[in-house]
Write a structure and sequence with these properties.
Layout (H helix, E strand, L loop, with lengths): L1 H24 L14 E4 L2 E4 L17 H17 L2 H7 E8 L5 E3 H6 L12 E5 L3 E9 L5 E11 L2 E10 L36 H18 L3 H5 L2 E9 L5 E2 H13 L8 E10 L2 E9 L8 E10 L2 E11 L2
Parallel strand pairs: 3-8, 9-14
Antiparallel strand pairs: 1-2, 3-4, 5-6, 6-7, 7-8, 9-10, 11-12, 12-13, 13-14
């Protein structure tokens, strides 16, 4: 009996230790969420919500060694969704979380939690984590809840030492063997004055970093309209990628080549007007989510999720995921 008792105590201790290690592995992803304030700004008759910027943030640098807590959060959220565990999901979602599914439907946090299993995608295969210290972008391919092959962008942010997911967005892109979209043909000359977003945006800037990001975004869009590829490239990171519904992904050099071809053909180019925008800066990285409409109806309305990074004092766009919305 004494040997049995000792064996039981030893087994119990091993079980507690194992559970303790698992708990520590997910500790960064399961701490209580920081409450965010979302002030409302009115501009040009449009109601805009803005991510509240924490008062003081240390400068963030890419930190690949800190990927484990982010990946643990991804795994825990996937398990919570597939298992319908709303309590676990709430602990992982930022208060102003939003989800855009492959069908172009946008869900706020409350609606997303209400139908967790309905939004549960298959586990992703290989994923990439771009970690900027206080913000991390997780990207990859997976099968959506409705069995569509999608590219996804998950944006995680650190709030009081805990990782919370702020944005989840899916997009159905063209297959690799699909022909690339042709450059717009030359047409009759027409006047296009880009006011929104080139000159004004329905957004109230709340900090110096936000102002710098908005300025960079407007300069980038002006360059597209002006067919100025070198100027556009100055506001885009070397690793930049754009993913758009029904199109093949394009990198920085490919996008610049398109702008050059549009210049050669004198193609009239418009950019999507911003109807609503959200922006949050975390050290040397920022998340932007904006609803766009094409002024010439050349494409459906779309939601764009973007990640910006600050390098050598300059804000650069690192990724843009654009999903047509319904």
């Amino acid at each position: 009996m004494q040997k049995v008792a000792k064996s039981s105590v030893k087994s119990g201790a091993m079980l507690v230790a194992t559970q303790g290690r698992r708990a520590l592995a997910l500790a960064a992803a399961l701490r209580p969420a920081m409450r965010w304030g979302w002030p409302i700004a009115l501009a040009a008759g449009v109601s805009i919500a803005a991510f509240a910027l924490p008062r003081a943030q240390p400068r963030a640098q890419p930190a690949g060694g800190d990927d484990a807590p982010v990946l643990a959060g991804e795994s825990a959220l996937g398990d919570a969704m597939r298992g319908g565990d709303k309590a676990a999901a709430r602990r992982l979602l930022a208060l102003q979380f939003s989800f855009v599914d492959a069908d172009g439907k946008i869900y706020a946090r409350k609606d997303f939690i209400a139908d967790l299993k309905g939004h549960a995608a298959a586990p992703a295969g290989e994923t990439k984590v771009s970690n900027y210290g206080l913000l991390a972008a997780v990207t990859g391919h997976r099968q959506s809840a409705h069995s569509a092959e999608v590219f996804f962008l998950d944006i995680w942010v650190r709030q009081k030492g805990a990782w919370r997911i702020l944005v989840m967005q899916e997009v159905v892109i063209a297959s690799p063997d699909a022909p690339a979209a042709a450059a717009a043909p030359a047409g009759e000359t027409r006047t296009y004055e880009c006011k929104n977003p080139c000159q004004t945006l329905p957004y109230r800037v709340r900090s110096v970093p936000e102002q710098d990001i908005v300025t960079a975004f407007q300069a980038l869009e002006k360059a597209v309209v002006a067919h100025d590829a070198p100027e556009w490239g100055r506001h885009v990171a070397d690793e930049f990628m754009v993913y758009r519904t029904g199109r093949q992904p394009a990198g920085k050099s490919e996008r610049m080549a398109v702008i050059e071809r549009q210049k050669e053909s004198n193609a009239a180019v418009t950019v999507g007007e911003v109807q609503a925008m959200r922006l949050a800066a975390y050290g040397d990285a920022a998340a932007m989510a904006a609803d766009h409409v094409a002024p010439d109806n050349s494409r459906p309305p779309y939601r764009a999720a973007r990640v910006w990074v600050r390098r050598n004092g300059q804000w650069l766009m690192a990724i843009s995921v654009q999903t047509d919305v319904k």
